[in-house]
Specification:
The chain is mainly beta. It has one domain. Helix content is 6%, strand content 33%. Strands 1, 20, 21, 22, 25 and 26 form a 6-stranded mixed sheet that branches. A hairpin with a 4-residue loop joins strand 16 and strand 17.
Length: 481
């Protein structure tokens, strides 16, 4: 996938004693083939668009550290990049899930482009469900499946009847039209962020359809509870089509731009969600941050102002009041996947450090929130960092969406913290070659994998960083050069 070799100077600088000065360095890249399937073999049958129901894709939509070398990767609502039925925005009855990965860091062989090698291994696939009944669409009046003959049918996964449970699914018509979009009984769930509880026994997941924040049992995938979010985030006119929802509401989240990011403070007491874009009642670039007390459910709202990206994809806790926010555009690999598309090069993929200390509440404010916005400073410019290592901007994924801190490493006797960043590949295993024009008859396809970038930084780069402790203490991998 990466056509240009990394600069030799990068290797020298990483392994040199002078590397101790403040900066954030790329130390490893790993990937998983976008055509692989996950371990939920019961869901392997074809979906409404004829794509396998257990394709291992989109796993960087949400990304969480779970201790040691274990990470949880969260796909979004499923493989809907393949057109088949516009009346449900091409969504399918893909069962929502999270993947448990082992991401092993090991020293690279002499002469390698980067000092560490990252080896991802899929360990488990956990399907998300509810013990109480959920609302599914019946498909009436919503056209046909891809063959043009078979009616669309119910949005309830066939596995519901087999396993006698109620699975959450990505299909857009699985809702109760008489309720607000935050109704916890809706079966439709578009997961976008995941975090692990302090005891390691449950996970918190936020989504775009509600928006929702649900807590699930980490072992079984059964929902434990759903947090009540403020009504000003919800829409009242629901539709299976994005364009209709957007034009039918003046208050609430913009369709497909709900609670895109979720953090958990190191003490495990507070969840911090962030919307991808402004609410309908707010001015563009004025985003909302929502804090949730895990025990009481009490919420507060704060403001975030976009700088140069088109939206926010993730938030991760540095400590109990500082957070890194992933701000990005839509340019880069897989943004224009078809053979007739003109490819785009990645431009904005940045992490900003924000501080909620002293932030003003905006729960009862709407419109222009810029005067209430939290302070922010740039922490990492991914595009400039990756291109400086020789990676072509056309091959930097468009959807950089998963961010998590990992275990410490030791380089040349100096302890460094790690930051893992993952992409959502939209379940597309291959895409049109971005380096060739659509008019070029030799234009073929290139791989579009699930990618993991690992960065290292020191205490001086992020003062006050507090790693989340999950069950056992934070492990350290020691490699001396």
């Amino acid at each position: 996938m990466f056509r240009n070799k990394l600069l030799p100077a990068l290797i020298a600088s990483l392994l040199s004693p002078v590397a101790a000065h403040a900066r954030v360095d790329l130390i490893a890249i790993g990937e998983i083939n976008g055509n692989y399937e996950d371990l939920a073999t019961q869901t392997a049958g074809p979906l409404e668009n004829n794509i396998a129901g257990n394709r291992l894709g989109g796993i960087g939509s949400g990304f969480a550290y779970a201790g040691g070398t274990t990470f949880l990767a969260l796909p979004d609502r499923g493989p809907n990049a393949n057109a088949y039925n516009p009346l449900v925005d091409d969504t399918v009855s893909y069962i929502d899930r999270f993947q448990t990965l082992n991401l092993s860091l090991a020293p690279s062989k002499p002469g390698s482009a980067l000092p560490f090698t990252l080896t991802p291994t899929l360990r488990a696939t956990t399907l998300l469900s509810s013990s109480r009944p959920l609302v599914y669409g019946d498909g009436a009046g919503l056209g046909y499946q891809i063959d043009g003959v078979t009616p669309l049918g119910s949005g309830a996964p066939a596995l519901n009847a087999v396993n006698h449970t109620n699975y959450f699914t990505g299909r857009s018509d699985n809702f109760d039209a008489t309720q607000l979009s935050t109704n916890p009984d809706n079966a439709r769930l578009d997961p976008e962020a995941i975090r692990v509880s302090r005891d390691g026994e449950s996970v918190f997941i936020s989504d775009e359809y509600g928006p929702y924040v649900h807590q699930f049992n980490r072992l079984t995938g059964k929902r434990i509870k759903s947090f009540s979010l403020p009504d000003n985030l919800a829409i009242s006119n629901l539709s299976s089509q994005k364009s209709i929802e957007i034009t039918s509401n003046t208050v609430g989240r913009v369709t497909n731009k709900g609670m895109e990011g979720l953090a958990i403070t190191p003490d495990g007491k507070t969840l911090v969600g962030i919307m991808q874009a402004n609410l309908e009642q707010d001015k563009k670039k004025s985003l909302r941050i929502v804090t949730i007390d895990v025990d009481s459910g009490n919420t507060h709202e704060y403001a975030y102002l976009l700088s140069d990206g088109s939206g926010v994809s993730e938030i991760v806790a540095v400590n109990d009041h500082q957070f890194l926010v992933d701000e990005r555009d839509g340019n880069g690999l897989a943004d224009t996947p078809l053979m007739t598309d003109i490819a785009s090069a990645a431009k904005v993929k940045k992490l900003y450090l924000i501080d909620l200390n002293g932030a003003q509440e905006v729960s009862n404010v709407s419109g222009d929130l810029s005067s209430y916005a939290v302070s922010k400073t740039q922490f990492l410019d991914m595009v400039s960092t990756l291109t400086a290592t020789g990676i072509n901007a056309y091959f930097i994924p468009s959807k950089i969406e998963g961010v998590a801190f990992g275990q410490d490493v030791v380089i040349n006797g100096v302890t460094k913290h790690t930051l893992y960043i993952a992409n959502d590949n939209d379940f597309l295993g291959t895409i049109a070659d971005p380096l060739k024009d659509p008019s070029d008859p030799t234009r073929g396809t290139v791989a579009n994998p699930n990618v993991f970038y690992v960065f290292a930084f020191g205490d001086e780069d992020l003062p006050g960083f507090v790693p989340q402790k999950i069950k056992a203490s934070h492990e350290k991998v020691c490699f001396d050069y």
